Amino acid sequence: MSAATTRSRTARTPAPDRLCAEAVDLARAAAEEAAAPGVVGEHVAVVSEGDRVVTHYFESKEPGYRGWRWAVTVARASRAKNVTLDETVLLPGSDALLAPEWVPWSERLRPGDMGPGDLLPTEAEDPRLEPGWTGEDEPLPNSAVSDVSQELAALADAEDAELTTLPATNRGSITSVAEELGTRRARVLSRYGLGLAADRWDEEFGARTPMAQAAPASCVTCAFLVPMAGSLRQAFGVCANEFAPADGRVVSLSYGCGGHSEAAVMPKPPKPAPHALDTMRVDTYALRPADDSGSVPAQPDGSTEDLGHS
């Protein structure tokens, strides 16, 4: 090893200054002044920070700061014999108990965290939303587009004047079309927002769930499925079976459960035949059986009189 290499390594990691390394009492006094009484423990290490700059480490007994250490940095000027104090700080060690990394509230929020009275703000440039129709882009009254809209509105109103009551907006205007499509809002869901909702719903009530894998049929053929409006109706609906696990929830058309309307149809009980009563004929019945019917025992003459006198 050359002398140049030795000098280079020595410059990067200089040996601790002797006077600074011996200033343990000065470092302890500084740590005890900054900390609460009785929380500065044993001296554990000395680390050289540079030329005539040394950091002393003391064990911390502060409750809740397991593995932390008090670090006191001291220094000495060139050719001086007095060691001076630079700084005192509490630092975590390699096995220190640390708080979790801070996460913004918008990333900590989870479904179900909101309660009554809570407000959830949305960003102005939220990728899940896009501008809706608010009427701000309505064509000017004297424009060509406005003339066409007015003509269409007048024609629609004339056709339905006798059958309907006129709404608040003209039926032929862009505003009325926006109302029918459900887009007359400041912002509506974007394709990205729709995709997030679809992925979330499909994960909870989709074809890959254990319930759907064991189902006798899918929701697309179930009578309890209520179709949705908009483009999501092609893949989702709302369950209306009160006994199903997804009652009142948005389910994928490929989802299924044992509450399918056609899974186990109970047969109707057979109806008994109606009682037949003939009211058109009168049947006569004798009050006493005939003598030759075999139902009356034969009696000798005078038996009736004997019975009467007995």
TrEMBL record:
Protein known as: DUF3027 domain-containing protein
Organism the protein comes from: Streptomyces pratensis (strain ATCC 33331 / IAF-45CD)
A Pfam family annotated for this UniProt entry: DUF3027
Region annotated Disordered, chain positions: 109-143, 287-310
